[in-house]
UniProtKB/TrEMBL annotation:
InterPro entries documented for this protein: DNA_mismatch_repair_MutS_C (IPR000432), DNA_mismatch_repair_MutS_core (IPR007696), DNA_mismatch_repair_MutS_sf (IPR036187), MutS (IPR045076), P-loop_NTPase (IPR027417)
Keyword set, alphabetical order: ATP-binding, DNA-binding, Nucleotide-binding
Xref: Pfam families: MutS_III, MutS_V
PANTHER family recorded: DNA MISMATCH REPAIR PROTEIN, DNA MISMATCH REPAIR PROTEIN MUTS FAMILY MEMBER
Gene Ontology MF, one: ATP binding
Protein name as annotated: MutS-like protein
KW Ribonucleoprotein (keyword) present: no
């Protein structure tokens, strides 16, 4: 079972690199193989929504992290095997291979060495201490001991192989038992991902969240921070059925979008079974996660920014109407329209969200006046990111506080930049 999400959320959270910007994926990518890199991307695009699956994956990664496991296979060896095995041979064993004799010989030798390295890892490696991989380990041991693969098992790595033996091994590896060979490679890629993420967890001191059943509807993060920032300011926030909505206010540049991204990234990555950038975290499994932090105009359908926002709210409403448990983020809800409509729309939609107590909502807004009407709902909590004035200079703490901001420093910033003075002294038409 996978967590429902979409391209908008993936783009909002900047999970993947774009142009010169790195992505969250890059932080976790310490893989040694192309196959592992591809599998890691697949995991990023398909978070989990099953408690047991999330807990199992997290326990595996944590076990490798405790042992400080290093990837046990030579990347160069794997490169040779991958190049060799991806050359499809015809099922007609008499047909000439597209590979040269030397390439086939190197590929066969590389696979034999890799085969034995996998056997050693299964029998003596860090995987022995990973209880959650017991069944997978048994399955792989049985696969290596299949009668069809016995010639590979008996052949010693590094020994010179005759031309006739190379030909026989080539037919065995690339044709007859190709499916088993692919299974061995897939196992290696999986271990590559687990060990890669475990290494990142140790190096960056990421923590493994505690997972709760969906029915508990809880989300508690202490010391969460954005993993890409060099000097991040950690924040803490708890949500549950009693406080299923957090209404976030703060001046421009106070850090609202960064906080929303940091919090949402933690929720997303936790559903992958991966460690997160925080001091501690507890969460209940959700059906989906939808964020709206950087919503573009939909020029393809001639939609303005405001109409794009309306369509996004409609999409979320449809998911909620189906009874799903969803984590929802709206940054500056209805910023694309006038203040009056934004005020009324924010209040109406947030009131409607408040009735969906099996989901959790983070809504930021520049319409601070909406807070007074929203206080009518007991399950709406209020937080803000403050601005402190140092004389005429605004300073930002980036630290959450309870309540609604009363900061109104826009004109101070405009004056500080000398905009009005520049216009006043500028050349007259």
């Amino acid at each position: 079972m996978f967590l429902q999400t979409d391209d908008q959320t993936i783009e909002d959270l900047r999970l993947f690199a774009k142009r010169e910007r790195s992505g969250i994926y890059d932080i976790y990518n310490n893989t040694s193989t192309r196959g592992g890199e591809s599998l890691l991307e697949k995991m990023f695009r398909n978070p989990l929504s099953d408690k047991e699956a999330i807990s199992k994956r997290a326990a595996i990664i944590e076990a490798f992290a405790r042992q400080q496991t290093k990837f046990p296979f030579e990347p160069a060896l794997l490169d040779n095997v991958e190049k060799y095995i991806t050359q499809q041979n015809d099922n007609n064993e008499g047909r000439q291979s597209s590979l040269g004799e030397k390439e086939i010989s190197n590929g066969v030798s590389a696979f034999i060495s890799l085969f034995h390295a996998v056997q050693i890892f299964l029998e003596k490696g860090a995987i022995v201490q990973v209880q959650e991989l017991l069944e997978e380990r048994k399955r792989m041991i049985e696969l290596l001991k299949l009668p069809a693969l016995e010639p590979v098992l008996k052949e010693k790595p590094g020994t010179k192989i005759s031309y006739a033996a190379v030909t026989a091994f080539d037919i065995l590896i690339r044709i007859r038992e190709r499916g088993q060979v692919i299974s061995i490679l897939q196992f290696i890629y999986e271990m590559d991902v687990f060990i890669s993420v475990a290494t990142v967890a140790t190096k960056r001191q990421f923590i493994f969240p505690v997972v709760h059943p969906q029915s508990s509807n809880t989300l508690k993060l202490e010391g969460v921070y954005h993993p890409e920032l060099k000097s991040p300011v950690p924040n803490s926030l708890s949500m549950n059925a009693a406080t299923s909505i957090v209404f976030l206010t703060g001046a421009n540049m106070a850090g609202k979008s960064t906080f929303l991204r940091a919090f949402s990234i933690a929720v997303y990555v936790a559903h992958m079974g991966f460690p997160v950038a925080a001091k501690s975290m507890e969460f209940s499994v959700m059906d989906g996660i939808y964020t709206t932090i950087n919503l573009p105009d939909n020029l393809g359908i001639g939609a303005s920014h405001f109409y794009a926002e309306v369509l996004r709210v409609k999409q979320v409403a449809s998911e909620l109407g189906a009874g799903k448990s969803i984590f929802v983020v709206f940054d500056e809800l209805f910023r694309g329209t006038n203040v009056k409509d934004a005020h009324e729309g924010t209040v109406a939609v947030t009131h409607a969200f408040a009735r969906k107590k099996n989901s959790l909502f983070l809504i930021s807004s520049h319409i601070v006046e909406a807070g007074d009407e929203l206080k009518q709902k007991p399950n709406i909590g209020f937080h803000y990111l403050p601005t402190r004035m140092n004389g005429a200079i605004p300073e930002y703490t980036y630290t959450l506080e309870k309540g609604i901001t009363d900061d109104r420093h826009g004109m101070i910033i405009i004056r500080n930049e000398g905009i009005l003075e520049t216009l006043k002294k500028g050349k007259k038409e």
